Amino acid sequence: MARPLRLTYPGAVYHVTARGNARQAIYRDDADRQAFLSVLADVVMRYHWRCHAYCLMNNHYHLLIETPQGNLSIGMRQLNGVYTQRFNRRHRRGGHVFQGRFKAILMERESYLLEVCRYVVLNPVRARVVTRPQAYRWSSYRATAGVEKAPEWLTREWILGQFHSQRRRAEQKYQHFVRDGMSTASPWAQVQGQVVLGRTEFVETLKPLLADKDRMQEIPRAQRLVDRPVLREILSAQQVTTKDKRDQAIWAAHVQSGYSLTAIGQHLGLHYTTISKVIQRQQNRQTKKK
């Protein structure tokens, strides 16, 4: 199994998910959900995390985690490992509870944290479990919105601080913000390299962390290429002034930067089979030069 790329540093913010093994439920009842939150609280306190949002669904969970000490992986091993032990002991079973490794998307706080927090707490509404987020007990929405007392381990300050300096006004504005989120597009279409959600400038700041990742073949290629140039730069009008230059740019976009034939074709308004033929011609030329 390919090992997922982990970009870790002090102060990093992540959207973290983990799913049940073979798509099975990871919570069979409310007692399991409460047990998970208890373990999460211990991990947040022990590893000095900041949990900005969470949502427990039937066979997966979502967390918005900030790691002041850059220790996401060790904390996640503790969270999933201890919960697995409790779940198996309670239900008198053995084996895996979670399917493989957790998934973590590194986020740019200023551009995406607020939007992803909203996306997370709207999951039960999108899944038609409830019609309103305040009707769901197992997310951070009720605590952040001021509907119920927030647990000590939940960090509300940053989210509410984006709306108003007075707490009650901030809670009300947050409620309106979440309610309006049902008509907005999912942020995941903007994820780069499967692991980063942020503007181009943010990705640039990560390049020192990515310096040795391209030599780690066990990491999925799309993730190793997270710092690749954006497609519009490779195929800009300045780069494709002639057909030959266009073909060279297409080859570079696919072979060197890992863009799919479909993505390149959609950008240029060409069918992916045309792109495939261009790449094959360029590959033949590269072979002849050797």
Kindly describe this structure.
- This protein has 290 residues and is of the alpha+beta class.
- It folds into two domains: 12-190, Transposase IS200-like (Alpha-Beta Plaits); 230-290.
- Helix content is 46%, strand content 10%.
- It has helices at residues 30-46, 72-91, 109-121, 123-126, 141-144, 157-161, 167-179, 200-205, 207-210, 221-224, 231-234, 243-256, 261-268, 272-289, and strands at 12-19, 50-56, 60-67, 103-107, 196-197.
- The relative contact order is 0.11.
Summarize the structure.
The chain has 290 residues and is an alpha+beta fold. The protein is 46% helix and 10% strand.
Label the structural class: alpha+beta
What fold name stands as the CATH topology of the largest domain?
Answer: Alpha-Beta Plaits
CATH class of the largest domain: Alpha Beta
Low-confidence stretches: 214-219
Report the helical percentage: 40-55%
- CATH 2nd-level architecture of the largest domain: 2-Layer Sandwich
Calculate Rg over CA atoms.
22 Å
Number of helical elements: 14
Strand order of the largest sheet: 2-3-1-4-5
Which of globular, elongated, flat, extended, rod-shaped describes the shape?
Answer: globular
Largest sheet, strands/sense/barrel: 5 strands, mixed
